[in-house]
Request: fold
Amino acid sequence: MRTPSEQIEQDPRKKTLVILGTGWGSVSLLKKIDTENYNVIVVSPRNYFLFTPLLPSCTTGTIEHRSIMEPIRNILRHKGAQVKYYEAECTKIDYARKVVVINDESEIKGATSATEVPFDMLVVGVGAENATFGIPGVREHGLFLKEVGDAQAIRKRIMDCVETASFKDQSDEERKRLLHMVVVGGGPTGVEFAGELQDFFAQDLKTWIPDIADHFHVTLVEALPNVLPMFSKQLIDYTESTFKEESITIQTKTMVKNVTDKYIEAESTGPDGKKKLEQIPYGLLVWATGNALRPVVKDLMSQIPAQKDSRRGLAVNEYLVVKGCENVWAIGDCAIANYAPTAQVASQEGAFLARLFNSLAKTQEINEKLAELSETQAVAKPEERTEIFNEIKDLQKRLRRVKQIGPFEYSHQGSLAYIGSEKAVADVSWLRGNFASGGTWTYLFWKSAYLSMCFSTRNRILVCVDWIKSSIFGRDVSRE
Ligand code: FAD
Ligand code: NAI
Reply:
C-alpha cells in the first residue's frame, strides 16, 4: 500500500475533468472513477477528506481530529492514471469561457498564487458554508462546527472557559456565565455536539476540576417546537427525555436574534403564544443552524438564466447536470436534487457520476472502434467480412449494455445520531420498512456503523485506539 504501482501520465488528447472539492461527494467520485479515461484535476483548499459524522467527537477530544482525516494525496496516488491536485479555492467558475479561477489561500504563497484552469467537464462539489441568516454578532462571537479547525477552536474554547471560571476570586455570576455552554440549532449537529459536551463534563471535567461542577451547564436553543425534525416523533421524544436526564436544557420555540460577546438575545414563544425577548449569558456559543450557499456557487448561478429561481443551491436534473449548463455537474450540499444535504446523499451522487463518466468514456471508445471497423469492413475482402461483422455485432451488444445508466436514484439507508451518555437514535430503512430505535444498543450500532464507514483501515484503527484511550485515561483536558 505504501508503494502503489506506476501511474499512467496525463494525455493532452483526453478530455479534462475538473473536480472542485475534496468532501463526501467529490471523494466518492474520485474513488470510483476510472482516471485513465480523462485528465482529472482536483481543486480544493483542503488537502484531505474529512469524515464529518465523527467531527463532534473531536470537539472534546474523544477522538483526535487526525484520526478522521484522509490525505487526498493518498487517495490520488492509488488511481490508475495520474490525477493533478491543486490546493486552492475556486473563486470563480467562468462558464462561458469554460475555465475556473483558482486562488492559493494558504499561508505560504509562491510567485503565482492565482491562475485559471480550463475544463471540458466540471464537477462542482464545494459543499456549503454555515448559515447565519445575517444575525448580528454570530460570525464575530460564535463558533461553527463544520471543519477540523472549528472542532479545534471549540475544544480550546471549552478549556479556556473552564480554566477562566476557576480563576482566583472569580465571582459566582461570572463563573456561571463562563460555564454556560450554549448551542444554537437543534438539528443533528447541535444535538450531537450538546451530547458530546455533556459527556465530557460528566465523565471527565467534573472529576478533574470539581470546582466547576455546580455551574457547568449545556443549553440547546431551537427555533422550532422540537429538535431533530428529520427523525420520527418517538425518537424526538426519546432524545428530549434523555437530554433532561443528562441535565441538558432544551429551549425550543426560541429564535436567536442577536449575539454579543457575553450573551445572546432570543425571542421565545410561551405556551400562551406570547413572545418574550430574553438575554442568555454564555461562555461558549456554538452556532449550528444549517447550511448556506458558498459565494462561488452563488456567482455561477447568477451566470445561468435557468438558475434564476433556485435559492438554496444549484438546481440539477436527474443526471445531476446543472440546469442550463452543458458538461457541468453538481453534487452534495451545493446541489439541489430534492434530498437532504447529507453525506449519504453526497457520496451516492459522487458514485453515480463515477459510473456515468466511466460509461460515457466506454461508449465513446466503442463508438470509435465501431467507426473504425465499419471503414475496414467497406474495403475488406469477402472472406474477412463475416469476422468483422461478428465483431461489430459484439461491440453493438456491449454498447447497449454500457448505455443502460438510468437517472440518479437515492437509496436512503436511514438516519443516525449520537445523543450523549452512550445512547444514540436511529431511523433505519429495513426490508422496505422503517425501524426506529434509541438507547445503548443503538449506540453500539452507531459506533460500528460509523467505524465501518470510515474512509480507510488506518482511520478505523486510529478511531478505535482513540475510543479506547479516552475511556481508559479520560479525555485530554490540556488547552493547546
Ligand atoms: P463537503 O463534504 O463539505 O466538502 C466540500 C469540499 O469543498 C471541501 O473539501 C471544501 O474544502 C471544498 N471547498 C469549499 N469551497 C471550495 C472552493 N471555493 N473551491 C474548491 N473547493 C472548495 N451527514 C450524514 O449523512 N451523516 C452524518 O452523520 C453527518 N454528520 C455530520 C456532522 C457534522 C458535524 C457536519 C458538519 C455534517 C454532518 N453531515 C452528516 C453532513 C455531511 O457532512 C455533508 O452533507 C457532506 O459533507 C456534504 O458533502 P459535500 O461533498 O457536498 O461537501
Ligand atoms: P439543520 O438545518 O439540520 O438544523 C438547524 C436547526 O437550527 C433547525 O432546526 C433550525 O430550526 C434551527 N435554527 C435556525 N435558525 C435559528 C435561530 N436563529 N435560533 C434558533 N434556532 C435556529 O442543520 P445541521 O444540524 O447543521 O445539519 C445540516 C445537515 O447535515 C442536515 O441535512 C443534517 O441532516 C446533516 N447532518 C446529519 C447528521 C446525522 O445524520 N447524524 C449530523 C449532522 C448533520
Residues 26 and 335 are 12 Å apart (CA to CA). The pocket of NAI (ligand 2) is lined by residues 133, 135, 184-190, 192, 221-224, 229-230, 255-256, 288-291, 340-342, 415-417 (CB under 6 Å).
